[in-house]
Amino acid sequence: MTGSKPVSTSRLARGSKLGAVVAVQAVRKRRTKLSMIGRSAEVRARMADESVLRLAEQLVGVFGEMKGLAMKLGQLLSLLDLELVPPRQREEFQRRLAVLFDHAPSVEFDAMREVIEEDLGAPLRQLFAEFDPEPIAAASIGQVYRATLFDGTEVAVKVQYPGIDLAVRADLRNLGLLRVMLQQVALPGFTLAVLDELRTNFEKELDYTVEANTQHHVATMYAGHPFITVPQAFPELSSRRVLVTEYSPGIDFDAMRQLPDAERDRIGEIIYRFYVGSLFELAEFCGDPHPGNVLLRADGRVVFLDFGLYKRMAPEHIAFEATCLRAAAEDQYDELFRLMIERGVIDEHSAVTAEECYNYVLSAAEWCLVDEELPITPELASGAFLHAIDPRITEFDGMRRQNLPPEHLFSRRVDFWTCATLGQLRATANWHHIAREWINGADPITELGLQHRDWKIRRQTETTT
Predict the structure, then answer these.
(1) Which of 130, 144, 185, 446 could be 137's S-S partner, Cβ–Cβ 3.0 to 4.6 Å?
(2) d(CA 40, CA 289)
(3) Dist. CA 422–CA 410, nearest whole Å
(4) Where does residue 441 fall: left (phi above 0), alpha (psi -120 to 50 degrees), or beta otherwise?
(5) What is the pLDDT of residue 32?
């Protein structure tokens, strides 16, 4: 393996990398625009394509090297089609950014070994029977390796990059510069409030001890499920910077995208049930849906990974969301408006009307409120997201100025991110039929829904006997 530079922890050094992208891209835009004068339409289109793809390559390099918070934002750019580039270039742009999910630049194994041995307090050979030094995946703040315990159990070992905690804090101090950079590349909607939400929660992901306990809990909760599986974690073998879990092989999301329609639709329903369904059914959910956290096993079960960002909600908050979605699905303008005012989402003295409130909710959530087979595309997913946050869309200015209570930030985020993941999969379903199980208490009508209901009944029986 070839070596790479260590993660920079200096705020100045890390900020200067972002500044360089901002400056270079601004110049490149002007230069490309000027050089297009007098060229044919075909040549202009090719030059624009080349400029955009050079930007993608540069963002991959900077985000991947910085890892931490910047890489998290890079993953978002690859997931949502946020009108960052012209339509003809978006697929290739997203494809190049998508390497941030699994193939970020690696750190030399000797440096990663030091983290393992320092945290676990013993030489590697005493900790694992076998340990493959070649990483099998890259997370936003670490690399994943394959190893074997002395009892023969195959495990995945996620190890934080050396100094990543300092690097993340440097990134957090550079939030203002990150915002400038995103504005330079014409990305709308990334307000300081959005970045503050990332800042508040990202630092929590630095402690793998918490993640190990969370994943152990979720894996135990979903044990024996017919189509959802979570690799078991070993908190007793983990530490602040080292996470040891069961190794669970499967094909990655890119391979899933090549599957026939029926298989992609089935995977899409499973993804929806896991990320959004668990919120309404269990009052807890994984707050970080994206393609890099999903694998498909040979037996058809979908593997879910990465529980660094895991949220629990009070039942009354979940009931409020379900009631609002039900009111929107049933076209109850006034009831939805009343609920929003009572909850403090809308200031009763504002100029927002019941119709504006209703249309705003529909613009973000209509994909799961319409009673029809609906293919989720990247364009549809991005449209929902942009309508909610894009200041250029004046239609919902009043609603965007209202106050979303903080306890609902992550539930809305998981809804958008799940929709975006389904868009990348291009899955089709009657999403409302599935959602009715949560917002109306309806009986399931899909095959997966019936299997899930039977599993819940078995689990309840086992826990009461």
Answers:
(1) 144
(2) 43
(3) 18
(4) left
(5) 36
